[in-house]
Structures are given as C-alpha cells and as structure tokens.
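Input/output pair, single chain:
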Amino acid sequence: MEHATRLSYPFTAIVGQDQMKTALCLVAVQPAIGGVLILGERGTAKTTAVRALPGLMDSGSRVVELPLNATEDRVVGTLNVGALMASGEREFVPGVLAEADGQILYVDEINLLEDHIVDILLDAAATGVCHIEREGVSRSYPARFVLVGTMNPEEGTLRPQLLDRFGLSVHVSGSLTPDERLELVRRHVAFEEDPQAFCAQYAEQERALAAQIAEARESYSLVNYPETMARLAAGLCNEVVVDGYRADLTMMRTARAWAALQGRTCVEQDDVRAAAGFVLAHRMKRLPFEEAVLDEDTLGKAFQTVVKRAEEASGASEQGEAKKA
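Output:
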C-alpha cells in the first residue's frame, strides 16, 4: 500500500463520465479555451479525473490546488515583509498563479471562493499573464495554466458574469447502470489492493491518449476554421440566446481542438455541434436561481434549425447569382 499515495488513478480507467473526460482533454489541447467548470454531486469522479490529467500531459505536469481560504496576496503574490523591514528592499514574492504556470490549477468548490479571487483566476487563465499593481510594485509574470473548477450546484452557484468567462462547462451525474456501478467498484478495489499492477493494466491506453493529445496540441494551429463554420456557431449562439462574443471565440477554439483530436485539419459541422454542448449551456440567459439547461434534444433541434436556415440562405444566394448571370 506504500505506493497508493504516489500513484493517481488512471484517467482511462474512470467508468463513464465521457463528457467530463472529453472537456478535460479539450482544455489540455488548448488552454486558451479558458478552463472547464465541472458541476455535479459528490462521488462523481470529478477530483479523480482532474488529478489523473497530468498523466496525459507533458512530463513534469502536476496539479496545483488552490485552497478556498486563499487570500489575494497568496494568489497573485506580495512583498516580502521581512526583506522590506530588514533592508528596505522591495522584494516581490510570486503567488500560486506563478506556481501554476505550465501546470493544472484546480479549485474544488470554486463557487465558495470569493468572487474577486475567481475574477483574478479567470483573467490569468484568459491572458496567460498575471499582472499586479499594488504597494508601489508593478509586476507581470507568466501564468499559463489549465484551469479546472469543480462545484456542487446544490451548495450555491457562480454569478452569470463569472460563468460566462469559463470556457467550457459540463454536468456530471452519479447515475450509472448496474453493470457500470459494479465495474466501478471492481476497479477501485483493484486499485486499492495493488495500485502499481492496476495502473500497469491501463498504461497502454494512457500512452495512446497522451499521444493523441500531444499530436492535437501540435496540429491545433494548422486547423482551419472556415467562415461557414463561424456563421454556424454565431447562429447557434443566437438561437439559444447567448449574449456577447466570448461564446463565439470559445466555440472556435473548442471546435478546432476537437477537430485536432480527431486528426483533421479543417473544422466541420460535427465539430461545431460537439463544441456547442460544452460552450453554450452555462451562458444561456435564465431567470435568477434558474439552472441553465441545454439537453441534447434542445441543442439538436437548435442545431438543425440553424443548419437549415444556412442552407436556405445559401440556396437563395445561388439563385440570385444565377439570375444575374
């Protein structure tokens, strides 16, 4: 049992929760997506999946966890009071965001974190830089990280302004089939009894997925995003009533990341459809205390409506060109 604390449960051994695993792979491919918010009750493998993610990324990747009681000084950094008092020198000590550079920043129960701290995290996640102006100190340092926040909606939520700044969201549920529940128990018992042997069983699957993510990261910049797909994404945002342009940008990045994971160099309709499932739900307009719901049926109908509208507009345009000719 000595090695149990040293080994993380394999990402590919997690039973079910395919949407959550896909969302994490997408932000691993392109951190500029802006992070992922995982919503679900306790016992749905949220923390297990996050802690397993470094095994699929670059060597040396690790999870940096931010405690809920973290102050702004602890997050962004502050002056070294001891050095200031001893020599009068303004020595700056970077915070958690500097430690998280190049890593995975994990915030469990992020809905319980103070709003202004969440603002700071999301700003850094979007820009890749932490900038601090305080106490006569002006500093900037790299803060490029994959941001993952988890929360139980029953314990409160985030303000819509903060929700909008998360790139992706995914709802996870503990509702598994009896066979899945049995398999989950079997795997966890096997991991607890012999972590090394259990991880060895999934080593090849872990290597294959890690290689797929690495290749997608390399090819992401080569993935083309045609204007027709941008129009489709914009139409979807309008159809489900999403304000602002952040959703459009995130749809573009997510669709390109999804296409890259599939080994393609041009975004297609299916990529936009897949991206929409992660990008739009938490950005939809809703009444106070009303949970955002964008189920597969609703999204599918919206997608078909927008596609049909685009096809009709294209057909009308072609007829107009033919008449001119």
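The chain has a mean pLDDT of 85. Strands lie at 36-40, 63-65, 77-79, 92-94, 104-108, 129-134, 137-142, 146-151, 168-172.
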